Amino acid sequence: MEREAPNKPTEADKKLQDELRASGDIPAHIAIIMDGNGRWAKQRSLPRVAGHRQGVSSVRDIVEACGQLGVEYLTLYAFSTENWNRPMDEVSTLMRLLLSSLSDETERLNKNNVHLTAIGDIKKLPIEVQEKLAESMSITQNNTGLTLNLALSYSGRWEIMEAVKEIAGKVQRGEITLDEINESLLSNNLTTAGMPEPDLLIRTGGEYRVSNFMLWQLAYSELYISESYWPEFDRAHLYEAIRDYQSRERRFGLVSEQVRRRSNGGEKSLATKIYETITGA
Ligand code: IPE
Ligand code: IPE
Ligand code: MG
User: Topology of 25-248 in CATH?
Assistant: First the structure.
């Protein structure tokens, strides 16, 4: 079946996006800790779930804006390992919302050429959610635009622990030696294998912490904290975060003079190249 034409930005928005592309690099991978749904609702004397519901509109807007801007990967922290310990009714409401959002949004994702993936302990999710997720991922698997990567039942420590088990098993079975364990092997055993590390981490809701998110991958990400709660975070906020990112100097442990010396004709800075060589990325 022919896919419908993707949603287009308005003229005014297209102009803003062109300006952003002209003013610096667009991050290849943006990761977002979507926080503040509960506080957004509380401020309006609404139940917490109203904040989670409203948060879905922010997801829609940010996914579309990222796709139009040419961001390659967007990882959204939607549910952490620790979030399972919230009151049972909040957890089940969140799972129902995830299920209905996947049902409602897949067609739109597909239309916008978005490829859906997920990281986390997916088998802990209710079976209906697992099935719907698998279906949405399969429908969008050949799409070539933005990769939307949902972190569900995810934690950074869980992921590193799983990678360690996997690697220890290979050593135990004699498939690799201890000397073959390096950073690139560990990276390739994480759930994000094959994805670049996030260039920009955004956290909404004003908290200055990473809450067990992508502990390995965030080593050299630029951090941006927004005071806005997730339900009010829209593409205008995203553009602001990207403008802020573009004003940073990513040094990867080098000194400024080395960073400013661009490598021969290449797009990437010398610092990025050195970092990629060190990490085997
Ligand atoms: C983020 O919003 C959504 C999830 C963690 C699932 P919160 O629900 O944490 O909202 P606050 O931080 O309590 O305001
Ligand atoms: C982080 O938010 C997890 C997600 C956004 C899914 P939390 O609200 O769970 O984090 P803390 O409890 O403030 O650290
Ligand atoms: Mg929170």
Answer: Undecaprenyl pyrophosphate synthetase (3.40.1180)
